Amino acid sequence: MSVYTDIEAAVMPVLAQMEYNGINLDVPNLEVYSEKLGEKIQALETGIYTKAGMEFNLNSPKQLGEVLFDLLQLVEKPKKTKTGQYKTNEEVLSGLAHEHEIVREILDYRGLTKLKSTYVDALPKEVLPATGRIHTTFSQAITTTGRLSSVNPNLQNIPIRTEEGREIRRAFIPREGFTLLASDYSQIELRIMAELSGDQGLREAFIHGEDIHTATAARVFSVDKADVTREMRSKAKMVNFGIIYGISAFGLSQRLGIPRKEAQEIIEQYRANYPGVQDYLDSTIEFAQKNEYVQTIAGRRRYIRDINAKNQMVRSGAERNAINAPIQGTAADMIKIAMISIQKMIEEKQTKTKLLLQVHDELVFDLALDEADELIPLIEEKMRSAIPMEIPIIVESGTGSNWLEAH
DNA sequence: AACCTCACG
DNA sequence: ACGTACGTGAGGTTC
Asked: Is pLDDT above 80 for A3?
């Protein structure tokens, strides 16, 4: 019996080819950016030490916690980590930002040093002299859900959410005379949830091409879709994510910054408005309780051995795993099947275009300009049809002279 | 090596 | 009373 599914066996040579291909990095621009970040970091550091009235190692959460909570005493009862240190993570610091100017500067310092050490300074060292390109390694036997992972370097967590981070994404560039193509699945996990659950409301929203977060907002807040505010949509987006992750009132209240009772009401509204989803989640957990595993559409199993645990915390965690794994795993199956069929096409056509990266719901190609018109529709179609579904599967593509522009 | 933090989907 | 959203990898500090 193989430890790999058929899909994994078939995608293996595709991954080998992607690793071999590698991607170009604009090292000179990153070196300029490193200098610039270094200066900003230096300035922040000086300001922080002045405001603290002492110098310390800003990179040490332990020392930082002592400065903020023992020396400056910013709060009465600071949160602690499980080993008894003060917590100084982004969530805690954001909550303290109005207490003291220093906190904002620490957050800025944290953000910039993260970018500099993990990406700007680290990535150029990963360029292979022989090819002048970055070659990641994709692992297929790491995750519990069937996703790939990427190491040495990890190219699945390149920044995109902040302006400063996006500068790093700009450094990923095509070969001379080529363009980068990024094709990604739109809201794939929610579509899979709609498919697996068969929930009528969720299905109709996708079939009618509605904005899914707005549709959910209208339902959970009992308003007309036209009257959904940005705040309502933003909250509904968190609810939708929460559903995929195995929502709890506590978890949702944390993320929305609202009392648990309100979060509970939102969840109850969701359940009442999407009864098919609720039934699906219940039956998934029942299946797991009986079989001690759950599975994806393609039959990939995740064993959930804690599903009948006595300890409620452990059991709840297992239930979240049972809910999330078939959804995340089906999305992983889908994109792997697409990769197999796209690589086959590329080889048969002997294109200059090459598949470079996979980032869970996205494929990145080094695209030959004269092949774009022919290949983009074919790539999109292979992604859409990898696992046939009743729910429409939407793929969005973009091209550009770097990875950021391709989005 | 464990811990904390934070980058991504 | 307690305390968590799912899945990863990497850098820096501390022990």
From this structure: no
